[in-house]
Design goal:
Length: 114
């Protein structure tokens, strides 16, 4: 069983006292896509036997007016790993924003399966 394709709600929480987070992503056949009013994200993942891992890049498409100062005007790359079940997934990883490394955790909930 691999992670299900579909539109997921993702809630990202930064760790180590860093303020910020993000929401919203689409998973389909090993590709991740998402975005909001200021940022877009794209990446890839693999999944099997209840475990998954991947990488994601986040970029600003419209000036965010310091909405998320950690991400603003930077190309942020992330690596993560975690577990998944039928309609949920979770994971932890590290984001590299400029020269700053930021630990994060995320929880995903399937909204609309493909």
């Amino acid at each position: 069983m691999t992670i299900r394709n579909g539109l997921y709600h993702i809630r990202i929480e930064m760790l180590d006292g860093v303020q910020g987070g993000n929401q919203g992503v689409m998973l389909r056949d090993g590709a991740m896509r998402g975005g909001d009013s200021f940022f877009f994200a794209y990446g890839s993942y693999t999944s099997a036997d209840g475990k998954w891992k991947g990488e994601l890049t986040n970029e600003e498409h419209s000036h965010s007016f310091d909405e998320r100062p950690v991400w603003g005007r930077k190309v942020v790359t992330m690596g993560f790993s975690g577990t998944y079940a039928d309609e949920t997934a979770c994971g932890e990883g590290i984001a590299l924003a400029g020269k700053q490394s930021i630990r994060f955790k995320g929880n995903l909930r399937l909204l609309v399966p493909d």
